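Morning run. Coffee first, then this:
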Amino acid sequence: MYNPLKSEVANYNAVNFPKQVTNNREKGISIVQFYQAGEPSAKRDQGQYEKFAIENKGMFRIGAMDCTQFKAICDKEGVSDFPTYKVYPPVPVPAFAIENDKSAVVDTDALKKSAYRFIGNRVIDINSNNIDTFINDNPGKPKMLLFTETKSAPIVYRALSTYFDKTLEFGMIKKDEEALAKKYKVTKFPTFLLLKNGEKPKPYEGSSYTYSELFEFINIYSETFVFVGDLEQKEVKSAASKPWLNVATPFLAKDSANDICLQKDGTLCVIYLSYDSKEDVALNEVF
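And here it is:
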């Protein structure tokens, strides 16, 4: 029902469902629509579910399974009424079905509320008293600062703080901290700044505050930093040492394979194999 080349909704089957959902819950939340092809309710919910997947791209793994094709999987998941929507939170919380009026279009607000409560929060409230500690602790570790009018950390920012928990620290400064806004020359809210000790703050200049766009901004710039822990230098490859990240059609080799294809879950990877080259013979043998 969902076009794999155009849709943000993943199509699950007997092979990829365990890998991407049931066995992939250590970090991340999955939402799955179980439907029966040909049922009016499936087509009725399709547009709304597609929209939900676009709006929450990256925050959750969002997919669907046709139970007419993969009945054994649906039976194993305890699904016998259609459509059924289930949330798969990080372990050890058990998966659960979302209460939904099956005679009406899917309530995506209910989906969000059910899934949002499992998003972690590593965001630190920053003020004039603790800003120096926040900046100076772990001096080699990049810091994200959000200047905001909201009282609590936005869901998207919380989700990012959880994903990058090993590599960055996240802080939030409220609008009434006028001295800090002045210090960092912040005049609009929200404002996102990426900081590294000794370097000029890098502002996020995008117009959208979606998870996927903020993720790309943080991911690109965080890769250029070297992290330091307990004053011990750790080797981290920068983006400059990975030229394949900056070209539209990169060469697949031993060093680049994981970044381009082999460890890119949820991405369609099209590979052109040339047997004329003697380079990376071992990699050719894999395929």
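Residues 123-233 form a domain with the Glutaredoxin fold (CATH 3.40.30.10). Good start to the day.
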